[in-house]
């Protein structure tokens, strides 16, 4: 049974797809519409991007996208390691 979860990320689709190759660290993937499929040996990760949205805080407008992850044939330890690397690549600094 696949492990499935959703994260809200502060990115547009273009931002997400631009950063994705670095986050995947050379693992092959292909894109069909708003779905990314990652084939990692016998394992498969499907990432679905929800519609682009906008968060408003007073006059500040920030991108927001729900990102759905579905891991098939991954062990929990592999999912945790993958998500740590993935989230580190998508981190944005502030000052």
Notes on the protein architecture:
The chain contains two helices and five strands. Strand 4 and strand 5 form a beta hairpin. It is an alpha+beta fold. It has a single domain (3-90), classed as Ribosomal Protein S8, Chain: A, domain 1, CATH 3.30.1370.
What order do the helices and strands come in, and which of them pair?
Blueprint: E1 3-9, H1 13-24, E2 29-32, E3 35-40, E4 43-57, E5 60-72, H2 76-90
- Shape designation: elongated
Structural class: alpha+beta
| Strand order of the biggest β-sheet | 1-5-4-3-2
How far from one another are the termini? 42 Å
Q: Please work out how many helical segments DSSP would assign.
A: 2
**Tally of DSSP β-strands:** 5
* Overall mean confidence score, pLDDT: 92
Per CATH, the superfamily is Molybdopterin cofactor biosynthesis MoaD-related, C-terminal domain
Identify the CATH architecture: 2-Layer Sandwich
- CATH topology description: Ribosomal Protein S8, Chain: A, domain 1
The major beta sheet can be summarized as: 5 strands, antiparallel
Q: Number of folding domains?
A: 1
Order of secondary-structure elements: EHEEEEH
What is the helix content?
25-40%
Taking all Cα atoms into account, the compactness measure Rg is 14 Å
Strand content: over 45%
CATH class: Alpha Beta
Low-confidence stretches: none
């Amino acid at each position: 049974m696949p492990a499935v979860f959703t994260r809200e990320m502060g990115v547009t689709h273009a931002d997400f797809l631009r950063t994705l190759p670095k986050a995947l660290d050379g693992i092959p993937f292909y894109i069909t519409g708003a779905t990314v499929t990652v084939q990692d040996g016998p394992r498969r990760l499907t990432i679905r991007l929800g519609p682009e949205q906008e968060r408003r805080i007073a006059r500040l407008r920030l991108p927001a996208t729900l990102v759905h992850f579905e891991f098939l044939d991954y062990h929990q330890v592999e999912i945790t390691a993958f998500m740590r690397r993935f989230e580190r690549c998508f981190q944005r600094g502030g000052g």
